[in-house]
Amino acid sequence: MAKKFLSVLLMLILLIAVAGCEKDKETSGNADGSGDSKDKVTFTYFNAASPGKDGNTNETTIGKIFEDQTGVNFKTEYLVGDINTKIGTMIASGKYPDVLVPDIAIDKVLDAGAFIDLTELIEEHGPNIKKLYGPHWEQMKDKDGKINFLPFAAKQGFIKDPNITQGAFWIQRGILKEAGYPKIKTLDEYFALLEDYQKKHPEVNGASTIGFTALTYDWRFFALSNVPNHLAGYPNDGEVIVDMKTHKTDVYADNDITKRYLKELNELNSKGLFDKESFVANYDEYLAKLASGRVLGFFDYGWQVNQALDNLKAAGNDDLRYMPLPITFDGQKDQYIDPPAFINNRGIGITVSAKDPVRIIKYFDNMVKEENQKLMFWGIKDETYSVDDKGRFFQTEEQYAKTSDEDFRDKSGLNTFEYYWPMGDMLYSDGNAWVPGKQPEVAQVAYTDGDKAILEAYGVKVFSDLFADPDDRPWYPTWSAVVEQGSDAQIFGQRKTDLTKVYFPKLVLAKPGDFDKVWDEYIKEFNTLDVKALEDLMDKVVEDRIKAAAKK
Amino acid sequence: MQIGSKAAVKEVINPSVSISTKTKKSFFQRMMSQKALLAMSLPFLVWLVIFKYIPLWGWSIAFQDFKPARSLLDQEWIGLEHFKFLFSDDNFWRVLRNTIGMSTINLVLGFVTAIGLALLINEIRHIRFKKSVQTISYLPHFISWVVAASIVSYSLSLENGIVNIVLVNLGIIDEPILWLGKEKWFWVINGLTEVWKNVGWNTIIYLAAITMIDPEQYEAADIDGASRFQRIKHITLPSLQPTIIILLIMNLGYILESGFEAQYLLGNPMNLAYSENLDIYVLKYGMSMGNFSLATAAGIFKTVVSFIFLFTANHIAKRFGQPRLF
């Protein structure tokens, strides 16, 4: 009897499971081919680039508006766990979500042929996409001329980010205050300030002060190895410097600028100013150290230290917060701010599993209209932002607080549509910034009294005013170039990283007298690597991009 | 009497006859008589074939320029290229050295400490104390490596690390040492970490073996006036010998598995030259570059080496008349 009951139960469970699967299939795109209908339909969207809350776009205020316009809803799912495993499983099974954001695994997805060619779809159904992405059209094409995915941000014009999210030498504001807000530009001046201050204040809150620290953990090692390039007045082109005249690329890890910077750090170390734990601390320990207020200065990219900076801001002691400075070797023009670049190796694509690509492309086309983009990033007029009589967008303190609240952002869809969809960037045709974060009016609302005071002392409105405007570099950033998996260039990259990881600590921590000896050893090893593999590839990339930029 | 004796003779002969005939004709009969056992082992056999033998097919990847999601016919066969890459890479030999160095240290330290602790725990008379020592010593085994590595790196840190504080106050060192920055110390640190984490767990099997020893032997030794050390030396250790040797043979097969998490999490630029092992190398140059062929080639290399070690160890045990695996 019990047996019989069990088997019936098993059957039932199986039936339910099968029915469940069937239902899933039905909801995903009831293709009627025309794509003209506004019938309600749900597609799946998988985002491997950032963590987030799974849900439906039509459950958010903005997503609901889009559904009313197009009838399309997206069931969103975000990455949990390891990206390569997840994408690898998708590729192995051949089953993809309708729309996929593969982030760093994009090469694998392209290799597997998982994205459909969008060229015709856009020509036929995407006039607005064509308009927005038009200036970058050539750069979007793959080697075989296909457009496999839409890169995220199609830049329109240029506006500087008011705050520094990219590289800078950071210094504690208390140091600047004590020195009477000097305008410093060179590395020597910067280190001199730190040294002076540490002598006067050997302790902070009972712990010893740390003159200068560096982030070296795991793949974040570039926060140390990129610095010479910035000090020489170049933007973050990854492993190479691109000559402005000849357009030849040069791996600078063995150049004099690298030697010079490491020698400076070596001297700093011999004076006891350099944080010895720099090379053993992990990312969390590094952030904790910054947030403790013991560190006087460091180099890093704003987006990497945000968490620590926010903690310091919340703690409220303005003297312990940091100020970003555009330091160069000899005071040459800095290039810390990214040139307007079109990142063409990250994006969103429609997969071969999608049943109704036409509806999807129409949804994308609808969402890249300027009024809908404003909806995606700014939210709803008079609720999350206001417009003054000159047509400038701004936020009141109340609106700023509201749009900073995670709960509100989730409900309204400001989080869902924050990035990772087809979108523009920089400036709308009416001159407002594409995203609120880049609008100076909004940045100023977020500034504390301390921020305002230090900005006034330096006679600027926003932090990025201290930094030089970027020069025109159509090839920027070379780090976004597709390096083929397992190629000589990629193997060189890995070997170079391994070698520099072993030698940079040795160079910095060596006795000053031994520095040149260790450097010669390093160069000897470096010369055994296949530098040309990467330089040749990069030369080609730069050349191609200059050509593509000239075509538009 | 005669009849009786005949019957007795028959009885004596008969079983031997029946046995010999049974073994001759009887593969099926024996199978039938052991069908319960066979049925029980069948699932494991199936499991073994599905999960251990069929995947061996994947070794073919090592001889291709493998690209995922392509059929076998579309793959490009390139012979021994990946093996050539491995064996001509200086880094490969460096990580091989590290792997063997660290796993040898782990093996020796692991055995000595686990046996030592098992003997010590066995000598404790107070039951509660014994149980709590056992529990506490194997607790770290259940901590994830991520947490364990943080504990270790914090203990070894320059300013607040307990290791430096203790050593400085005892006057053993003059000033704090950046332990994780001393590349040559890494093998030792890794070995000690491994001991701390796994010693309690490893003792369990020895403690179990000790309980199998006949208590009468100890009583007899007691009466003969043997001291505690003599009892350990002449009764406990010899009784543990078969267990120790079998475990040793099995572990030698894992000589190229020096662990992954500990090295990955405790590794940093300063100790890279000594902390990186084969698994990390495979991750860097194989997996994360999408070069699955290279990863497979390294895997094959590992398996071959393991085989050699396992068979050699087993053979040596056999020659010396010791218990062995097969």
In words, what does this structure look like?
By secondary structure, chain A is of the alpha/beta class. Chain A contains 23 helices and 18 strands. In chain A, strand 11 and strand 12 form a beta hairpin. In chain A, helix 21 crosses helix 23 (531-551). Mean pLDDT of chain A is 90; it is low at 18-34. By secondary structure, chain B is an all-alpha fold. Chain B has helices spanning 2-25, 27-33, 35-53, 81-87, 90-123, 127-138, 145-155, 162-169, 186-211, 215-223, 228-252, 261-266, 272-275, 278-285, 292-319; strands at residues 64-65, 76-77. Chain B is flat, with a radius of gyration of 27 Å. Chain B starts with a helix and ends in a 7-residue tail after the last helix. Classes of the chains: A alpha/beta (552), B mainly alpha (326). The A-B interface holds A 84, 88, 91-92, 94, 107-108, 111-114, 207-208, 216-217, 221, 276-277, 279-282, 285, 485-486, 490-491, 494-495, 498, 501-502, 504-505, 509 and B 67-69, 91, 153, 157-159, 178, 180-181, 268-273, 284-285, 287-291, 294.
